[in-house]
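Let's practice the habit of predicting before peeking. Look at the sequence and jot down your guess about where helices and strands might fall. Then scroll down.
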Amino acid sequence: MALDYEQIDAHVRSKYIPVLVDQVFKSNPVLVKLMAKNKVVYDSGKSIRVPILYGKKKGGAYAGLDRFDINPVKTRNLAEFFWRGYYVNVTIVGDDVDMIEGDEQILALVANEIKEAELKMKDMLADAIFEASPGSKDMNSLYQAVGTDEYGNIDPADLGDTGDGSAPGIWTSRVDTSGGAATLSRIKALLGDVTWGTEVPDLIITTQALYDALWAQVQPQQRGLLQNTILAKVGFTGIQIDGTQILVDRHCPSGLMYGLNTDYFKFVIHKKKNFKWTANKELIDADAYVRQLLFKGNLICTSRRYHFRASSLTA
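Done guessing? Here is the structure:
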């Protein structure tokens, strides 16, 4: 007796979905870094709220009977982000299942459908991460996170930050819009702008054209990631400059480059929509196997001052 739809579902959930999720995360260097740092987290609730530190406590030098300033100051705020959902539909016509002999062939048909769902989900999430103008239903993108506009329902000006991108601020990033050639000296200057003590960007993402221009400028020993890095282990190659890894992502828009300190990013996934394979949806007016793969989450930056964005760069 051939597999029924419930048995197919059980096989998909136990065998195919874990592999799909693994491949989705391994396809994107930002997500690979976040996974390695345990920055992929699970949550629920109406929205995602993240505390941010923007002020300093009262303090200073004193001697003898100097009076301390004990007036309270506000040092924290809550950034708020919203859940964003994505789906991939899988429909297999009943005739296609009926005409196949043997469970293995049925599962092979389903495996092909799941692979296509994987590719679609990879592209949707990667596109969302790099989208310069996200829609109202899209995740927050790197372009929004690494910027100077309102972010997380917080206007930088409300925190006393009037930054224009020329330098990182309390709730703004270093944003270079001057354009021009992508050179190592320029990249090092941008890295310096967003370095605070030992806090240094660990990942630069850019386009193939800009990467190739930088590759031609570095020493041979800087070409190729160190073999003990997580990115190298999952198959990425790149340039390493002073410990910062430079990689290509084909979803990155032309002329753009991001310098990220991934310690200050999180990829939050809703507990109930963690690449969920939907339950039986038997059509009342057709014979078909219809399911959806559901994801709900968001990419969140918890401190904007540690990153840079450069645009209009040329090779």
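How did you do? Residues 52 and 77 are 5 Å apart (CA to CA).
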